[in-house]
Specification:
Strand order of the largest sheet of chain B: 3-2-1-4-5-6
CATH architecture of the largest domain in chain A: Orthogonal Bundle
Radius of gyration of chain A: 28 Å
Number of domains of chain B: 1
Strand content of chain B: 15-25%
Distance between the termini of chain A: 94 Å
Helix content of chain A: 40-55%
Helix content of chain B: 40-55%
Number of strands of chain A: 11
Strand content of chain A: 15-25%
Structural class of chain B: alpha/beta
Oligomer: heterodimer
Structural class of chain A: alpha+beta
CATH superfamily of the largest domain in chain A: Transferase(Phosphotransferase) domain 1
Shape of chain A: elongated
Chain lengths: 325, 244
């Protein structure tokens, strides 16, 4: 749409001083952090230290995000989303660019962290994510656009943080913003009504994405079966199969239910991991046996049919022979 | 409190009109009737974007709506997004007028301090979620669109998932142009459910002409008819004056 006018806010050069029209605070741009649907985020220096600034074009959508951030900053106890500092307008070259200032989260993208530190982090970070989602839901919000791009792992001990709250929607409304792969509507597995199970579906898809970094497109039909197949084919996901399955089906009423089951699942996995080699090979054998069982039954069924047929043929021949003589 | 209904025409096409009235003029007429005309241009993967672009843009501009060019595979996401954005834009338009009557003629939302804008946005969000919506969908079924029609079908189903997740009521009607014998053909009369779409789509036949203007004209008439019918139902025999 307004692609040409977007450029100025999307390419603010390093060293530029962004000065607020209303609050008179000023910020010096250090570098660009990323492009969102509704604006560009920069790292900037200020008297608060390093902050992240989102500069947009449309003041309504920037304001809408500010509304959410303000609400989240009011939630006590847990840190949900980046901490919000202020909102203002920046006038440059006769145009007015709305912007807001928030905490700079100096983290690593979720998947690169898991790649670097080990697959076992996936389950643990998911536990953290589900706890935060639970807190968010209790406040009457649904995250909406949950995807790896919006998740960072920060600090030590590693903690999962979420970035973009553009999709955050009040409970019971229709989800404002979503990404197809993580959207249950796209997969034909539910509505886009903002409710806890919407986020839990996306959380399951984030885990699936971890095993399939390239993602994949939906099939023409039976997408539930298709996704379950993808889970079974991946050794990483197979460990989480029971909770993934339920999350995709929308069987969880809230995040803590899913978190609880993931927790006990992880405990099971951990005890397996502690005496790694014998148990894991045994369990592998077991699972192979399990998979082969139905095959065997099928084969024995087939043998039965052949035997029966041979038997009948034998008697029929006897009967024919009896007739001839 | 009756919140009123948003009326949209959603035009899905891939190029220039070549028959009948000027679609840009028809879009302007639709706007006069209180409808918004949104246009989505569907491109082939290796298609350049200039042909037909200007017309698509102009139709949306004079229809007070939004236009967007997309490749067929991105259509689903775009259709629901454009519809949603257009709703917000229309509502912002109302609010803008209201604000001007309170704050004075030259005042814009941007003239409010950022802290006050929050409340305005909340009102817009609330209305976008709860207002009733009527979307008349017009699909270009000319020859070049033929292989894109399955994607269009997916996109419309996707749209209905999004709209049905809202609190407000929705109604759809579906038209194709060119029709089998006429320039425009009604595929589906006003209905709150889009689910029977599979049964309609295979029947589409594609021809060489693209009568976008006449199609828009028909859409306006369809809205008028719907209105007068409703007037009859709600006000007990009273015909609402139609401006045509």
């Amino acid at each position: 749409m307004a692609a040409t006018s977007k450029n100025q806010a999307a390419n603010v050069p390093r060293g530029t001083r962004i000065r607020g029209k209303w609050n008179k605070q000023s910020y010096q741009v250090i570098k660009k952090l990323g492009n969102g649907a509704l604006g560009t985020v920069y790292l900037a220096d200020s008297n608060r230290g390093n902050v992240a600034i989102k500069v947009g074009i449309d003041s309504m959508s920037i304001t809408s995000e500010v509304n959410v951030l303000k609400q989240l900053s009011m939630v006590q106890g847990t840190v949900l989303g980046p901490f919000f500092y202020e909102v203002d307008d920046w006038e440059m070259n006769g145009r007015c660019y709305p912007f807001y200032v928030m905490e700079y989260i100096n983290g690593e993208p979720l998947f690169s962290f898991i790649e670097r530190r080990g697959k076992e982090w996936l389950g643990i970070l998911m536990l953290q994510l589900l706890r935060d989602l639970g807190a968010l839901h209790r406040e009457g919000w649904v995250f909406g656009d949950l995807k790896p791009d919006n998740l960072l792992v920060e600090g030590s001990p590693p903690t999962i943080r979420w970035l973009d709250v553009g999709g955050t929607t009040g409970m019971g409304r229709s989800v404002k913003e979503f990404t197809e792969f993580f959207d249950r509507g796209y997969w034909g597995l539910g509505t886009r009504v903002a409710e806890p199970s919407y986020d839990l579906f996306s959380a399951a898809m984030v885990m699936i994405n971890a095993a399939y970094p390239q993602r994949f497109e939906r099939p023409k039909k039976d997408s539930e079966l298709f996704l379950l197949n993808k889970i079974e084919k991946s050794p990483l996901l197979n460990a989480y199969k029971p909770i993934l399955k339920k999350a995709l089906k929308g069987s969880y009423q809230n995040a803590s239910e899913m978190r609880q089951e993931l927790f006990s699942l992880l405990q099971g996995v951990k005890s397996v991991a502690s005496n790694r080699s014998p148990t894991s090979s045994k369990s592998r054998v077991k699972s192979r046996q399990k998979r082969q069982k139905p095959k065997k039954q099928k084969r024995s069924g087939w043998i039965e049919t052949v035997l029966l047929f041979a038997f009948i043929l034998f008697f029929y021949t006897l009967y024919l022979v009896g007739h001839v003589f | 409190m009756k919140k009123g209904t948003l009326r949209q025409i959603l035009l899905i096409t891939d190029g220039c009109s070549n028959q009948g009235e000027d679609p840009v003029a028809m879009a302007a007429l639709a706007r006069e009737h209180g409808m918004t005309v949104n246009v989505i241009g569907v491109l082939d993967e290796n298609e350049r974007t200039d042909s037909g672009l200007k017309e698509i843009e102009n139709i949306a501009l004079s229809g007070g709506g939004i236009h967007q060019l997309v490749y067929a595979r991105q259509l689903s996401h775009t259709v629901q997004m454009v519809t949603r954005k257009a709703m917000t834009q229309t509502i912002q338009g109302f609010i803008h007028k209201e604000l001007q009557s309170i704050l004075g003629a030259e005042k814009e939302i941007e003239d409010l301090p950022p802290d006050k804008r929050g409340q305005v946005v909340e009102v817009v969000d609330e209305l976008g979620e709860t207002m009733d919506l009527e979307v008349l969908i017009m699909i270009d079924t000319s020859a070049s669109m033929q292989h894109k029609l399955p994607t269009v079908e997916d996109a419309l189903l996707d749209l209905s998932i999004s709209l049905h997740s809202r609190i407000g009521q929705n109604e759809y009607a579906l038209y194709a142009f060119p029709g089998k014998r006429k320039q425009v053909e009604q595929l589906m009369d006003w209905t709150p459910q889009m689910k029977d779409i599979h049964t309609i789509f295979p029947k589409l036949s594609s021809g060489g002409i693209t009568p976008t203007g006449p199609a828009l004209k028909e859409a306006i008439e369809a809205y008028q008819k719907k209105r007068s019918k409703r007037g009859l139902l709600e006000d007990g025999g009273y015909f609402e004056e139609s401006g045509s």
